[in-house]
Design brief:
three-stranded antiparallel sheet; 15 helices
Length: about 375
């Protein structure tokens, strides 16, 4: 790489030299100069950049988010997670904020992106995309390209809760389970409904449960993996759960125990506990779209999705006077605060135990 005399007929008479070089993506480019001094100065800066990975001040001013993103990891996950994250970036950010100059992106730009470009997406989806921006901007800040993360204070409407918990009452739950047991088509997965309602498992945790995780004698379920999807949409088991607290051991309720014992005795060679009639791992998309949707259409009960059965479990535990802290551990929440946000209103009642104890003490002293 060195300055050479420019012979292009497209250049003005003032152009004297040209430097041909490769950019950060490896593409061949050229830059024109009025003098050898300026051309040679550019060669020196470009050589330093290639050897050290640093950018000239001119290049850093012009760098877009798309150009910067190629230099940093968007996630520390495995290859599948990296591929999914890159897909999210390419689909939602590349042609929007990605084309902006890195130094020009403001908090208002990020907020407008969330409110307008991602309008209609759920708070959960928006949060995933925001995490990508947070990662990119944190690297840009640490590398000195920007002063602060412009996505840090972006507000995602409805992020904390999309809807109120919608549990079934014990009577309604019995009716819903009977619907599955008595229907020839739905009965294949009636045990799934019972398991979700009487353990509080997330559907992804339930689907990954194998018989190696079950102790029917001790009556325990060891939750240590979840179903995830690869970029092509195929399911696979992953030990990377939602949080560290999600890995937990649950007790098997009486309502579920007999069903599991019968299932084990009639299908001893199945790998997964809640498998299909052919012994295959449950396909969560098919379960929701074909089976659960059919059940919802067959009843007037206030239930819309499998996650409502997780809320039903929480309501059952509350009715059995399970303390909030213990319920949080059973649900696999990352903290009691998460449980409080979802179910705190159920626990808003006066506790007279201390007063009753004091009154008893006064009577004994009298």
């Amino acid at each position: 790489m060195k300055p050479i005399k420019c012979s292009s007929s497209k250049c003005s008479k003032k152009c004297k030299y040209v430097v041909r070089y490769k950019d950060r993506a490896g593409k061949l480019k050229e830059k024109h100069f009025h003098s050898y001094k300026l051309a040679n100065q550019f060669v020196t800066e470009e050589t330093i950049r290639q050897e050290t990975g640093l950018l000239s001040s001119e290049q850093s001013q012009k760098m877009t988010l798309n150009e910067f993103i190629t230099t940093v990891p968007l996630t520390k996950g495995n290859e599948t997670t990296q591929a999914v994250t890159q897909q999210l970036y390419d689909k939602h950010i590349k042609d929007t904020l990605g084309s902006y100059k890195l130094r020009d992106i403001s908090r208002l730009d990020c907020q407008k992106f969330m409110d307008e470009d991602l309008a209609g997406y759920s708070p959960t989806s928006k949060q995933k995309i925001k995490r990508i921006l947070d990662t990119a901007f944190k690297y840009a800040s640490s590398d000195g390209f920007i002063v602060r993360n412009p996505a840090e204070n972006v507000i995602i409407e409805g992020e904390m809760r999309e809807r109120e918990p919608q549990p079934l009452t014990p009577t309604q739950l019995t009716e819903f389970i009977s619907l599955w047991d008595e229907d020839e088509y739905l009965s294949e997965y009636s045990n799934v409904v019972v398991a979700l309602a009487y353990t509080g498992m997330r559907p992804q945790e339930m689907g990954a449960l194998t018989w190696d995780d079950v102790d029917l004698t001790a009556r325990t379920l060891d939750l240590n993996k979840v179903i995830k999807k690869d970029p092509k949409g195929s399911q696979f088991d992953s030990p990377l759960m939602k949080s560290k607290s999600a890995s937990r051991v649950l007790a098997i309720d009486d309502e579920l125990l007999a069903r599991l014992r019968f299932r084990k005795s009639t299908n001893p060679n199945d790998k997964y506990v809640f498998s299909s009639s052919l012994g295959h791992q449950i396909n969560l998309n098919n379960f929701r779209g074909r089976y659960f949707k059919k059940a919802v259409l067959m009843t007037d009960l206030p239930i819309e999705r499998p996650y409502d059965l997780r809320h039903t479990f929480s309501a059952l535990m509350w009715s059995r006077n399970v303390p909030l802290g213990k319920l949080s551990r059973m649900m696999g929440h990352s903290s009691v605060n998460v449980t409080q946000q979802w179910y705190g209103n159920w626990y808003r009642e006066a506790d007279f135990s201390g007063i009753e104890t004091l009154e008893q003490w006064k009577e004994q002293q009298a």
